[in-house]
Amino acid sequence: MSDQSHGPAGPAGGPQPAPQSYSYPGAPDASGATDPTQGVALADEPSTPGAGRSRRTGLLAGGIAAVVLLGGAGVFAAQQLSGGGSQPADVLPGDAYAYVRLDIDPSAGQKIAAVRFLGKVPQIQSTLGSGDPRKKLWDLAAKDSGEACMKAFNYDADIAPWLGDRIGLALRPGGTKDTPNLAVAVQVKDEDAARTTLTKLQKCGDSGSDSDLRMTDGYAVITPKGQGDATLAATAKGSLAQNTTFTGDMSALGEQGVVSAWMDMGRGMPELQKLGGSEMASSLGMGTVPTANAKGRVATALRFDSDYVELAGLVRGADATTTVKGSGAEMANLPANTMAALQVSGADQSIDAGWPAVKKQLDALAGGGQDDIVAMAEQQLGIKLPDDLKALLGRSFTVSLPDQDFQSAAPAVGVKIVSSDAKRADGVITKLLRAAGGGVDLTHHVDGDKVYVATTSDYADDLKAGGRLGDTDAFKQAVGDVSGSNAAMFFDLDKLEKLYLSGVHGQEKTFLESLKAVGLNATQTAPGEATFSLRVLGN
């Protein structure tokens, strides 16, 4: 592993502070008591940007980063840390098209929210116990590793003294399938100790020195062999934290939480297709996707509220010239005993704008043959596309299930459609049922601009009568404001758990019982811009 140091001198060479001891707030102390806010600092503010195992053993640190990111990101926000300081984006190149960051030292607000949320899911805390969660992840990585020498490392002696709180990974243009142009930035507290251990870790592999190691501004930057100097040179020209597109997107996203990610799809999709090779591209459906025309950026963050953990995100700069107006009113007006619901609104507008692209994709999926999928569907189903599809999905299309035990011969399931041509939508339903061969028994009728469809006439009447699902605490916390939603989903797990809880036992059952609801909310806010949120609530 080639190693050079750059930037201001780190702590190497002088007395080192003792490694910080981690423990989970809310875990029992020596007396058996718990204090959920013990050690949590309140003064710091949320930070903002700028203010398995790697395929090659030489990028082992990148593999460790991936294990951390995928294996236990959620629990880290509960650490008793102070927050603040530099971020990986400060030492990674500004030309990156994709970035993922883990921060186990988030803002104080995130720590407090995490403590309160995790207090509602005690199974996680009882499983993790107290202590440094990074040690647990290291132990898992060492156990799963096929390299015997990796298992010989002692976390307390070889890892903890130098490993910092943040890890970031950036993908840059120009990589190949065999050598992706990536850079992993690992925060370090002791550059000499980090250099020694990372060099030894690299030697665990059989391929020799196939990565570069550079130290800069309190981070170990690991890249493929021969890319170390070029990566730091690119950062010197402008770091990712100085990329105004990146910082603008992340600022619009808000609280970065414990994990955040960003991708420029316009530059990144073609690059990822190259890295994945033809087989991967085909398996992901990318072989027929016009990646050269992809536009926009996506930014996401995993963050905590006292009532839920949330994956929040936004899309900016996508290829759209109009805003599709959404409304989740029909979902919010479902009966209060609803156990699950899904709504899509504004689909008729979306079909108008996007049908040419959809048709092109359908033709591509046909493999370039002579068959016209759309014409075949029209002939077999007796419908006209896209007009009948527009009428069927309408301005609002809502699927729902009421609270039930699913013991009856006909479980209650319903659909509520608001359409500019409700009679045509009802006619399409009749045609689809006829095409199904009479195997589906549904009741459906038109009432003004609405169509009610259900497996039982009683539930069709319930849908027509409506209710106040939107006023329930579970819905408001899980889904939030749906007044402009283009897509929303709600699962009341307290009602649904009767369907699966009897099949699980022990800690798994305790964990499932501690979950209250799941909600999704997505809204187009402007042409080419949208926000989305996926929340999991605790009881």
Q: Tell me how many strands there are.
A: 17
Oligomer: single chain
Helix-and-strand structural type: alpha+beta
Q: End-to-end span in angstroms? A: 49 Å
Poorly predicted ranges (pLDDT <50, ≥5 residues)? 7-82, 280-289
The biggest beta sheet reads: 17 strands, mixed
Whole-number tally of structural domains: 2
The fraction of residues in strands falls at 15-25%
- Rg over CA atoms, rounded to whole Å, is 26 Å
Could you say which overall geometry the principal axes of the C-alpha atoms support? globular
Number of helices: 18
| Overall pLDDT confidence | 81
User: Into which percent range does the helicity of residues fall?
Assistant: 25-40%
